[in-house]
Amino acid sequence: MGAYEEKKETCGTICLKYLLFAFNFLFWLAGGVVMAVGVWTLVEKSDYISLLPSKTYAASAYILVLAGAIVMVTGVLGCCATFKEQRRLLRVYFVLLLCIFLLEILAGVLAYIYYQQLNEELKHNLRETMTQKYQQNTQEQITRAVDKLQQEFKCCGSNSSSDWAESVWIRSRDANGRMVPDSCCKTPTELCGRRDHPSNIYKVEGGCITKLEKFILDHLKIIGAVGVGIACVQIIGMVFTCCLYRSLKAEPY
Q: Rounded distance, CA 154 to CA 185, Å?
């Protein structure tokens, strides 16, 4: 009877080992996905981040990159701990899982909080940023971001093309008679911004603010869903780790 129980315990441990190994492999892949989402947000959309006064959006992406990198390292550690059956390594693995879990929950919460305040933030700041900083000295990143925003989303001005009438640059001689930046034009050419007729420039209801808001909200949903989704999956890994740890502790060396 004792031999049977011992064999049963050993079989259970082996099953747990392979389950945890499979989890670690999927977890490692998930870490790559998390890091990729964070890097993509920071690299591909970095120009738009410069138009936002709050750093919450960027912070969420940085947290995902950090969490993704730790996840990939932790996945390898988890495989080693599982196959070597070392309780000390399993303890370290469990603590790392817990830290990553908290990081990803934090990224999800930050994304959700920013999701709630984004509309008001854009209303108060985007128009001022576009009119006061566009084509100004030391504001090359803002200028590049505004041009990209207007061309990519086919819009002109924060709320409408008439916003540009209050632009510091448009009112200066440097504008060379332009009424709007050339990036407002449907077919951008040098000095095309001198003519603000709807046939020449983008005139969309709501201006760029509605386009940028929708874009960022969509990405916040992705960041939040990825962070919280993978964090929930990690709970399974922590349960497996605890079960294997208890099983190893019960078995004789």
A: 9
Q: What letter represents residue 176's amino acid?
A: N
Which amino acid, residue 52? L
Write out pLDDT tens, residues 181-223: 999 998 988 888 888 888 888 887 778 888 888 887 787 777 7
Instruction: Indicate if the alpha-carbon torsion angle 166, 169, 175, 181 is positive or negative.
Output: negative
Residue 78: CB partners within 8 Å, gap ≥ 6? 20, 23, 24, 27, 93, 97, 237, 241
Rg from Cα positions in the chain: 26
pLDDT digits (tens, 9 = 90+) for 217-244: 787 777 777 777 777 777 777 777 777 7
What are all long-range contacts of 38-42, with beta carbons under 8 Å and residues at least 24 apart?
38/62, 38/63, 38/64, 38/65, 38/66, 38/67, 38/68, 38/223, 39/65, 41/219, 41/223
121-155 in b/e form (b: 16+ CB < 10 A) is: bbeebbbebbbebbbeeebeebbebbbebbbebeb
Side chain identity, residue 34? V
Token pair of 233 as six digits: 């999956």
